[in-house]
Specification:
By secondary structure, the protein is α/β, with parallel strands linked by helices. It has 19 helices and 13 strands. The structure holds iron/sulfur cluster. The site of iron/sulfur cluster has 14 residues, from helix 8.
Length: 434
């Protein structure tokens, strides 16, 4: 199995030895370090940060969870030793623990996962293991929260490194959304129109905190994934004159555009500005209000990369994720969720060249899985999701061995009051039909 981590180690070593002549490049040589160095740096600086990788320039909110120090023995252990310890702990735990690995997680961790998928597939996979006392989620914070909402109360959801958040999810916080909502209600009122449609309805992407999912549940709104965003927006437009979509502006814009909403009826809401930076009339004329959020992994893709891929590989199929900017989605052959990308490659019957616009770990894994095709990442620079990268086999070994010893560490718990409303929004999503 190919591994971004191994590639990064090699490139960084070569860069140190050969300088400019090194093959390949990474967005940060700091990626070659152990994530515990960032846990320590955060503790010393007293401020959280996302660490090296695509989100390194994003500002982490002060309330971002931080990881305490990983015990020294796990930092010092070799990959082989960690592997043996993880497998031994897994064997000792048997059905008492299930390990979930997100598509964007590094291979060094994925090799121990019982299920691999996107966030919602994984939360559902956990439901097939009701006997598991612990669900170890090798993904990011909002995914562990969703698993906690959907799992049984006596199941503990564990995030191996608490600092593994999501910079996009952090771009919309509950207070700012509540403030935005208050301003919108002042302008639109709350009365439905003649067709019974409310003035505005909140829609949150799965990549958001449980508090925001609960906000949607409480205000008649709904959750969406990148697979069902179109169906969810159609559902919302049947019930509302307009939609407030957070946190990912790109998924919102790309989906609404595909539904025929004109760009001039899509506004951006900047939470740092009064009325989000809009005037009242523009808000009254709008159909979609997009939160000023984005994924720094998918923001890296651009039209120039697509043009180069088409020049270098005539006939190449370009598939990108809808978290990419609109011009990238428009220039690609197709756009869709991680599941869509995987299925598109699996469905190709003739050897095909695919240029993919999504996270590098998933692209490398697809390349290894489908050797009959040429699969490469549109971005030539190796720059993984910073927060997924915070999970390393050392943390996995630690949480599993603690479980064997009867201790639950790094448990993610969503308050009961939040769970109820969040579940409502998730249930609406499951019931929404095209
Ligand atoms: S890839 Fe982007 S949206 Fe996904 S977890 Fe990383 S920062 Fe968040």
């Amino acid at each position: 199995m190919s591994s971004v981590n191994t590639a990064i180690q090699l490139i960084t070593r070569e860069q140190a030895e050969k300088g400019a002549t090194a093959a390949g490049s990474t967005c940060s040589p700091a990626l070659a370090k152990g994530p515990w160095d960032y846990d320590l740096a955060e503790a010393l600086a007293g401020i959280p940060a996302y660490g090296p990788g695509a989100s390194s320039a994003d500002v982490a909110p002060a309330a971002t969870p931080r990881q305490g120090q990983l015990p020294e023995e796990y930092k010092l252990a070799s990959d082989a030793e960690l592997g043996e310890r993880i497998l031994a702990a897994k064997a000792a735990l048997g059905d008492r623990a299930v390990i979930l690995g997100h598509f964007y997680q590094r291979d060094e961790v994925i090799q121990y996962a019982d299920f691999v998928g996107d966030s919602f597939q994984l939360a559902n996979a956990a439901l097939t293991r009701p006997d598991a006392e612990a669900i170890v989620f090798c993904g990011v914070h909002f995914m562990a929260e969703t698993a906690d909402i959907l799992s049984a109360p006596d199941q503990a959801v564990i995030l191996p490194n608490l600092a593994a958040g999501c910079s996009m999810a952090d771009m919309a916080d509950a207070d700012s959304v509540a403030e935005c909502w208050e301003q919108l209600e002042e302008i639109f009122g709350t009365e439905p129109d003649a067709e019974g449609r409310v003035p505005v309805l909140p829609v949150t992407y799965m990549n958001s905190s449980a508090a925001l999912k609960a906000f949607c549940g409480e205000h008649g709104g709904i959750v969406c994934t990148s697979s069902n965003a179109r169906t969810v927006l159609e559902w919302a437009f049947q019930r509302a004159q307009r939609v407030l979509f957070f946190p990912d502006q790109h998924l919102g814009r790309n989906t609404a555009k595909a539904l025929g909403v004109p760009l001039e009826q899509m506004l951006m809401w900047n939470p740092r500005k009064d009325l989000g930076g809009n005037d009242e009339q523009a808000l009254l004329d709008s159909r979609v209000i997009l939160w000023h959020g984005f994924c720094s992994v998918h923001k890296r893709f651009n039209v120039g990369q697509i043009e180069k891929a088409r020049m270098d590989f005539p006939g190449v199929q370009v598939i990108v994720h809808p978290e990419c900017p609109m011009d990238v989605v428009d220039a690609a052959d197709s756009a869709g969720s991680t599941d869509f990308i995987k299925k598109a490659i699996a469905a190709a019957t003739e050897p095909t060249t695919f240029a993919i616009g999504t996270e590098i770990n998933m692209v490398n894994r697809l390349a290894a899985e489908y050797p009959q095709h040429t699969v490469f990442c549109l971005d030539p620079v190796i720059c993984p999701c910073s927060t997924m990268y915070r999970i390393h086999p050392g943390y996995l070994a630690w949480v599993l061995e603690e479980l064997v010893a009867g201790r639950v560490v790094n448990r993610i718990t969503v308050a009961e009051s939040v769970q109820d409303h969040a579940r409502t929004a998730l249930e609406r999503m499951l019931a929404a039909r095209p």
